[in-house]
Amino acid sequence: MTLAHIVAKSLRQHMLSTIVTALGIALATGLLMAVWVVKSQSNKSFTGVAGGFDAVLGARSAKLQLVLNSIFHLEDSPGNVAWADFEEIRKHPAVMFALPVAVGDNYRGFRLVGTTTNLFTEVEISAGHKHKMSAGRAFNAGFAEAVVGSFASQQLGLKVGDKFHPYHGLLYDEKQQHAETYVVTGILAPSNTPADRVIWIPLEGLQNMKGHAAQAASEISSVLVKLRSAMAGKQLDTLYNKQGTRLTFAWPVAQVISQLFEKLGWFDRVLALIAWLVALVASASILVSLYNSMNERRREIAILRALGARRADIFGAVILESSAIATIGALAGFAVYFVIVSAAAAIIRAQVGVVINPWAGDAVLLWAPAGIIAMGAFAGIVPAVKAYRTDVAENLVPHS
Amino acid sequence: MPLLEIKDLKKTFTAPDGTTHKVIDIPSFALEAQQQIALRGESGSGKTTFLNLIAGILKPDSGTVFIDGRPMSSLPESERDQLRATTLGYIFQTFNLLQGFTCLENILIGMKFGCGVNRELAVSLLNRVGLSERLHYRPRQLSVGQQQRVAVARALANRPRLVLADEPTGNLDHANARESLALIRETCRENGAALLLVSHAPDVLAQFDDVRDLRELNLVTKEAR
Predict the structure, then answer these.
(1) Position A393 pLDDT exceeds 90
(2) Which has more confidence, A14 or A199?
(3) 8 Å CB contact between A233 and A55
(4) Regarding predicted confidence, which is higher, A400 or A346?
């Protein structure tokens, strides 16, 4: 029989209020951890999935729009780039590799991106790792063939040999179907990059699709660039952004994306503030439920004191009880955390193709529960003081 | 040296309207080790206050309570708690069992704050008071007589040198009261504990060789007569 045993009994006796209060704590802990992990992991993932490219060259526009359109396949294309501009940057000595991309069509909401077969043979999505096929082969240049990203194939139910008609525009509209028929020749293995949610076709296919402007045949949407060095980036930044006026050179990609997260920083802070407020309210509920229960427990406390329990024992038992409720809540908070982060990860993967792993370790998974438990212990102080002051003789037996 | 010695013990209470009421004024009282004394105390004679002063639950306005040579009334509160837990056993009129705990746990809690948890001893005490089949019952699952037996076992759990009993048979019928009183006296004797019992029931008092009248000991009630 220990103080912890006595506290455990008390928690069982007040099961309903223990569960309700712990649920509040669980919600706060889960929310806080989820907000933090989604923020830090998405920041890390977005800045780390440039698909092996350092920069994007596109029509004059905001760098962020250019990167979102070309790397993440979001947003509208800011305009086109002449084929000559592609040739010029491809031959620049500072450039290791350049890949042209063209957008403008979709298949049931998933973007068709026109490019060259170099995407599969030359591009390293991370050091030493190129795109791999989970089925079939790459498309042949000049043919109406397509390679489907893993997520897109899963969602669309496309497999090797399937045929489909593309739709005009970046948004799906069934009235905008093109006459051309494409055949799926390959499915990409999951790369955990935005490439997973794209249907890749030969560049010429997209340029020459019926219904596209004739000018499109000699233009592309943007150029994805791999540089030889950081100095090369500065050199091209000066060339295109400072000296030139027609094109925008978005470099470095990670920094451009970081700016997006900086702009969205207020949203994280609001979510974190909400989580802390929920934690505060949950802690206050511990305080109130324990404080109110002290009235009905006065006799119990007086009996314990009569049996020899010191005031400090009673004080400690109440603090232990409030800490135990907070601990139960904090542990249950991990379930809330996994539900929220799994849901957020599924949405982010579907929308952007970036993968967030709820099982990845993060310091917040330690300090957030610890902080909440400390708040819970702190909330126990007021009821503990009330218990500490309980008059033994008055609450034990009536005076005769 | 007596096990319990009281000198010039005084206690006054202040009513909510500010008036003061002197309840206890006992010049002297003593109890030897293993002695059993019954105190006759009518309602309002201050018997519970007297026992609470001895147990260190209340602090006197003046005077001293010595238990085994230690001045209970002038010790710091935490030491009073410790002395009470290790030296005294207290059987309350209303038993004061913890309702959320089983019979066995009630005994173990008494031990936890006293001489340390000894499960074997707790079980043997419950066996001794005839509750070997009720170890895991909660108080509300027991009859009044059985609850009182648990209270007796708990009072003896720390092998106290002195057992205080406040109207221990007040809530029992005649047959149960007689049986219970015999049990208290026997178990105290077996454990080498002295017994100070207060009651106003003539049949209870008749069981004791040494019966004192609290109204005579307490100058407050003595002068009021």
Answers:
(1) no
(2) A199
(3) yes
(4) A346
Q: What does pTM read for this prediction?
A: 0.75
How far apart are the C-alpha atoms of B164 and B179, rounded to whole Å? 18
Phi-psi region of B180 (alpha: psi -120 to 50; beta: other; left: phi over 0): alpha
Answer yes or no: is pLDDT of A115 > 90. Answer: yes
Residue B28: beta bridge partners? Answer: B7
Nearest by Cα to B167 from B135, B142, B201: B201
Best interface-test mutation with A: which of B21, B39, B57 has the largest number of A CBs within 10 A? B57
Report the amino acid identity of residue A52.
Answer: G
Min CA distance, B30 vs chain A (Å)?
Answer: 22
Q: What is the pLDDT of residues B29-58, one digit of tens each?
A: 999 999 999 999 887 778 889 999 999 999
> Per-residue pLDDT averaged across B173-178, rounded?
79
Q: What is the per-residue pLDDT for B167?
A: 87
A8 and A323 Cβ atoms separated by less than 8 Å = no
Say if B55 is an interface residue toward chain A (CB within 8 Å): yes
Q: Which residues of A touch B (CB under 8 A)?
A: 1-2, 6, 9-10, 12-13, 299-300, 303-313, 392-393, 396-400
Contacts of B99 in chain A (CB under 8 A): 300
Q: Which two tokens stand for residue A321?
A: 């009880």
Q: Which domains does chain B have, with CATH numbers?
A: 4-224 (3.40.50.300)
Q: Tell me the sheet residues that pair with A112.
A: A105, A199
Could you give the 3-state DSSP secondary structure of residue A380?
coil
A2: which residues sit within 8 A by CB, 6+ positions away?
A: B112
Q: Which two tokens stand for residue A212?
A: 């596209």
